Amino acid sequence: MSHPQKAFYSEFFSPLKKLLKIAFLFLSLIFIFSCHIYKYTYEQKSSFPLKIKKIVVVGFRPALSDKDTPGLFRCPICGATFMAEPVSDDVAEKMTIDLVNYLKRKEKYSLIPPGQAKGAYSTILSQNITIGIRDMLQKTGKSFSSDAVLFGYIYRWRERVGTEYGIETPASVAFDLHLLSTDNGSILWKDSFRKTQVSLSENLLDLSTFIKSRGRWLTAKELAQIGLESMIKYLGNSTTR
């Protein structure tokens, strides 16, 4: 093929190739969005009995205190093992406040707030310092004649290093929630959220987080709120995500 012919074909097909690439990327994003893929871990034990009306919200606590070193943590509620990092009590307290606020918006259950639950919790512990966490939660629920108790651990809370439009290290969080029956201490429902934010170019399957963040790099609190809001949305719902 002569040089003039090569130049002609190059000029003709180069824009066409670019157009095809753009069209392919666009169609891929539409397909991903339509699938609405979430990177959540969801384990539902059972749907709620209809009698559940009152829930004692104990809230969150750190799996490891800010004085501990990172390591494996076995959840005393469900027995699952997670890699955990030190988390401050302040983080757990703020997450508990967010949890209560989301539950109030749901307007489905009568709630006993964490402040009241903490008082009963302390009284029960003073009477038996060797009591296990599961028995403690069950007794706390019974002290308010509630149907269930809501409790969770925070396993990781790494803050974003950088700004919302340029980062050195992204935010990363991990936490779970358990709803225990006051009657027998069984797990009625549980859910966990573990996520480290990545850019859309690194993971096209995480389009949902990209849309919710409006293309920004989130703080740990903002990232956690995405997971917490989704958890509460499906609390007591027998339909899995």
Head-to-tail CA distance between termini:
57 Å
Helix fraction, binned, reads 25-40%
- Count of individual helical segments: 6
CATH architecture descriptor text of the largest domain: 3-Layer(aba) Sandwich
Q: How would the global form be characterised?
A: globular
Task: Report the uncertain regions.
Answer: 5-9, 29-45
Oligomer: single chain
Q: Number of DSSP strands?
A: 10
Q: Descriptors for this entry?
A:
Rossmann fold, single chain, two-stranded antiparallel sheet, 6 helices, alpha+beta, 2 domains, 241 residues, six-stranded mixed beta sheet
Molecular structure report:
This protein is α+β, with helices and mostly antiparallel strands and 241 residues long. The protein has 2 domains: 1-35; 39-233, Rossmann fold (3-Layer(aba) Sandwich). 40% of the residues lie in helices and 25% in strands. It contains 6 helices and 10 strands. The strands form 3 sheets. The chain has a 6-stranded mixed sheet, with helices on both faces. A two-stranded antiparallel ribbon has the order 3-4. Strands 7-8 form a two-stranded antiparallel sheet. A hairpin with a 5-residue loop joins strand 9 (172-181) and strand 10. Helix 2 runs parallel beside helix 6 (220-233) and helix 3 packs across helix 4. It is globular. It starts with a helix and ends in an 8-residue tail after the last helix.
